[in-house]
């Protein structure tokens, strides 16, 4: 799926139909949330889709997403999973550029979208650096202590790359009327934090890592509103 989505990001970015034939563009807003146990991920997505030539059943899309993720009891790991930080709570808010595609059927669209890049912000959180090893590394000073962390701010292709924040969706948009529909699916996301400096000095984990991340998948439901005539 990641290779398919990456191809769609490229096609959406270069396709000459965008901006040239506004009558062929569908626009809308989705307002909803992912949810599961003690985690939830609200989002607001503005999206535009355009047809590809005579392929009326396939549309490429671009958009803007405002999103958030709130969870409890998470373990975030470095890229090689050699470092783990335990969090009581996590909270990240972000805004992203989005690309994707839809398969269009009567009154139903089946689609996938993913964040291309964006900005994330959030409260500082303390993560417990849980580690016991017979071969201590550069992070030995901080083993089994609480470290101050903040969300990674600038994010890029979080579906494909580790250590970045963002979301993707797999969904069905069911049109109840010309202007309104119900969107059901899954939100696939990633949260990423980095250790904060102490007295202007970097706090490094073993292998000189500063970033940790975790992926999540949540059932998702939203209301969809069409902005097209």
TrEMBL record:
**Would the keyword Signal turn up in this protein's UniProt record?**
yes
Which region is the signal sequence? 1-19
Q: Which UniProt keywords apply?
A: Signal
Q: What is this protein called?
A: Outer membrane protein beta-barrel domain-containing protein
Source species: Dyadobacter luticola
